[in-house]
Input
Amino acid sequence: MTVFSYEQLFSFTEKIFLSIGCSEADANIATKALIAADMRGIDSHGVARLTGYVRLWEAGRVNAKPDIRIVHETPSTAVVDGDAGLGLVVAPFAMQVAIGKAKKAGTGWVSVRNSNHFGIAGYHAMMALEQDMIGMAMTNASALVAPTFSVERMLGTNPIAVAIPAKEQPAFVADFATTTAANGKLELLQRKNAETPYGWVQDKEGHASTDANILKKAGALLPLGSDREHGSHKGYALGSIVDIFSAVLSGASYGPWAPPFPAYVPMPENMPGEGLGHFFGAMRVDAFRPADEFKQHMDNWITRFRSAKPSEGHEKVLIPGDPEREMEIIRSKEGIPLVDSVVAELKTVGQKFSVVL
Amino acid sequence: MTVFSYEQLFSFTEKIFLSIGCSEADANIATKALIAADMRGIDSHGVARLTGYVRLWEAGRVNAKPDIRIVHETPSTAVVDGDAGLGLVVAPFAMQVAIGKAKKAGTGWVSVRNSNHFGIAGYHAMMALEQDMIGMAMTNASALVAPTFSVERMLGTNPIAVAIPAKEQPAFVADFATTTAANGKLELLQRKNAETPYGWVQDKEGHASTDANILKKAGALLPLGSDREHGSHKGYALGSIVDIFSAVLSGASYGPWAPPFPAYVPMPENMPGEGLGHFFGAMRVDAFRPADEFKQHMDNWITRFRSAKPSEGHEKVLIPGDPEREMEIIRSKEGIPLVDSVVAELKTVGQKFSVVL
Output
């Protein structure tokens, strides 16, 4: 484990993005989005992914100089073609389009095709907060999840993020995979040689499993709810809605045809659309009631929930976004710890472009 | 158990709504929304609730002649004040506003205050389908659900419905409570004197429980995910988003202050808003891509998911909405079975107004 400052990781990452041919503006935008994940403690989606992005670029699947553009629009909607750019660049573009639409029409909704992995959904949703807007972000992803009653993997972990501004209180920021546990949690257990709890994964025949390596053995992640009796059909529905809003609305590749993140995995055959899909929303709070009034009530909502009587062994009831915000405070003081395998990978990719970590 | 035809229940229910003073148009609208639940097999939200609505009217909490009106709007948003009307009447009004906005601006989003229980969310979301729109409906409800780490009940079962049109295939219709199990499932188990599975409820100290009567003993329903290890913080976030979109955006009463459905339960003190809140959305499919193209891809999505390899003991993988649609076909042929206690209650309320079931 080595600890890096925000500035160290930022500078390194930005240079790598410049090295693969990104413009200065795009390298900066992508780096901000990527390191936000490390700062918020979502280590699986931060610089640990940088090597993967470079490999996708090497494989010709990421376009470092994309012509990102609106291909269809109405007063409150748009479809954006990401031109195979980094999702870390395409997503902020599309979210700005949603915010711009909301300024005029009250809300803005943007579906994106022909993109790539966009980092953490929460970062993009939170762009709306400073405009006194509610922000939403979701994305489809390569199929690792088996719907209820299925042994086949049909959906990605398809996260949903919703960011809602408050007044004195910190914003409400939900950001979660529509599975019981995100893939990053399996990776943590693999490193420790530990098992998963029941309800996270199933084996290739659809039987309950606790094997943290089961995805390498044709097993699958389970939708939020784990099994039918505990509501997995609801998690399956949520993941499906994310897939349809992100990819069927935009013309991206959906369901089992979503492009895989690892560059060595061959692309699915007969893809019904282009690249990954995302979906963004921005709703101006004052399109519903005066912004100050809304934010005062959000403060009241947050304060009341935070003061709910906690159950035994728990100090307090949390508000969505609390753990990530607390981690951000800690890491801005103490730096970002990276495990040795990630540091080694980053050094290797750095050598390729003569960039020192 | 007695079996009734759709027409029998429709005629009886409509007469009851007329008897409490609803206009002919409103009685018709409310009856359609209510019986849709029975037809789709969601028995807890159909005519079984009629007696409850009448009691709310008797308690002065339902206004049979509401002046439902838009109190604020932008090109793509509106806030509707339900004037304490039946949710069964207020919700279709608000959904029509959303659809009207979508026709002009691409999408329409309506938050509703000062309403009451609106039946099943799916019915309202499905109103968008015939316009080639995606429909969304959600509502807050009185607090029965304990957030992760809480022993206090802070949220309702807060359902989310999303209806998405297809071409030859039937529409995708997700409609689910953001809890592991809806309250109606507990009621079924109570009647059978059966226990719940672990993960559905907790007792008043926050300990795991299998007691189907636990809500009467200050226990609570659990958010989708059941416990922290299985993602209950995600179900808690979803229920919170529904509460905030439905009630904080509109000025309805939120969180633990949402008004209770049973008329004998006293109203919470210091309510921060008026009545229950709902949230509706309509997105024109062709605000994103040509409607026919979208619907063809939805057919492809549905067909592919339905043909996913099923796990042992299951015939096929279902699409959200399949079970309810199949039930609707059966009940339109064979009628709607009602348990004796519901029939007795309906007969009693009928006698009050000289309406015969």
